[in-house]
Design goal:
The chain is of the alpha/beta class. It has helices at about 1-10, 10-15, 20-25, 60-70, 80-95, 110-120, 135-140, 165-175, 230-240, 245-255, 260-280, 305-315, 340-350; strands at about 30, 75-80, 100-105, 120-125, 145-150, 180-185, 205-210, 225, 290, 300-305, 320, 320, 330-335.
């Protein structure tokens, strides 16, 4: 019977390798540094209890507050079940399966390929240059038939923003041909790098945002698509009737209040301070070959015997994210910024590895 059911499924779904989220990978840890979450709960309480009624498709208070926060008009904002839904809505609205393609530049976020495969859309990749910046000549050669170009900035898992001059060149080469989607899930950690203010100059620019990272609401599943009204109008044709539940909209509106935004910025400052401490501490660990600069709430580092390091810490309840299978990231592990105590425990575990010894910083 199971074979019969599987045969009924679409061929591309049968062949699909699902995205391995942090929770799918499991583990029995008590130090979770693998999902780029804020390490502590935030103090919001439910106030809307009218659960007998369907919610607004686009909750007005959430939309108006996010528009004000982003410096845009409400008509330029769409809210969805995480930024992941925004990734997929764009494909559903703009790409014909079997005809159009999307493009992105690995190493980068894995859901671009999974969403394309699920819908049955071709995806093309142009590997990033050294330093994980865009290879613009190679992108230009691959644009025929491409409708969407996804650029994660700051990039996950490498932690670097994309050069703004390169982004402008990409927007010029795609004008009238394709949309450019700037995935800004981590933009609160380097707010000056946002492209939201560029929407007035580029009708084909789209910006994705989320409350999962800096706003410390990963469990809420609330994201935003920022674009000009013609794009938003098309996405509204394919979005679910009630994408946000009443409790989600309730908490999101609180998070986007003046007090909520102030709290978020305090958390960001704390995480950045801990991140810089962690980077310095990693450089003193003998098993660490290289630590990369980061403008996010995680750090990418290259380790000697990274698989052994990963498993040893896993067995101690310290769960990191293995990036070995990403192009150009052999030996790399990604470490989310937890509390200072969690980061100290991680460093202590790294320094206690067999054959390891700390080395003094230069």
């Amino acid at each position: 019977m199971s074979n019969t059911i599987e045969n009924l499924a679409r061929a591309n779904v049968r062949a699909l390798t699902p995205y391995q989220s942090a929770r799918r990978l499991g583990g029995n840890g008590d130090v979770w540094l693998n999902a780029n979450e804020y390490p502590l709960a935030v103090p919001f309480d439910l106030s809307q209890l009218t659960l007998n009624r369907y919610p607004e498709c686009q909750p007005a208070l959430v939309i108006s507050r996010y528009a004000a926060y982003a410096g845009l008009q409400p008509e330029q904002v769409l809210v969805s079940r995480g930024a992941d839904e925004g990734i997929e809505l764009l494909m559903r609205a703009f790409c014909e399966p079997g005809k159009d393609a999307v493009l992105f530049c690995p190493p980068t976020y894995g859901m671009y390929s999974v969403s394309a495969e699920t819908i049955g859309i071709e995806y093309r990749t142009v590997q990033a240059l050294d330093g994980w910046q865009l290879n613009l000549p190679a992108i230009s050669e691959q644009l025929d038939g491409v409708k969407l170009v996804y650029v994660c900035s700051p990039n996950n898992p490498t932690g670097n923003p994309i050069n703004p001059a390169d982004l402008r060149q990409l927007l010029e080469m795609t004008r009238g041909k394709a949309l450019v989607i700037a995935d800004e899930a981590y933009i609160e950690f380097c707010p000056d790098a946002t492209l939201a203010g560029w929407l007035q100059d580029y009708p084909h620019l789209v910006v994705l945002r989320t409350l999962s990272k800096a706003f410390a609401l990963a469990g809420l599943r609330c994201g935003f698509t920022l674009a000009n009204k013609p794009v938003i109008d098309l996405l509204m044709k394919v979005i679910a009737p009630y994408p946000l539940s009443t409790p989600v909209a309730d908490i999101a509106a609180q998070a986007l209040s003046d007090q909520g935004i102030t709290l978020m910025r305090e958390h960001v400052a704390q995480l950045i301070a801990t991140r810089e401490w962690l980077i310095d501490a990693l450089k003193t660990c003998d098993c660490v070959e290289q630590v990369f600069a980061s403008e996010t709430n995680y750090v990418l580092a290259r380790f000697t015997a990274s698989s052994q390091v990963f498993k040893t810490l896993w067995d101690q309840g310290i769960i990191l994210r293995d990036q070995n299978k990403q192009p150009g990231l052999a030996g790399c592990l990604r470490i989310s910024i937890g509390t200072r105590e969690e980061c100290e425990r991680t460093i202590a575990a790294l320094k206690s590895l067999p054959g390891s010894a700390s080395r003094e910083q230069a």
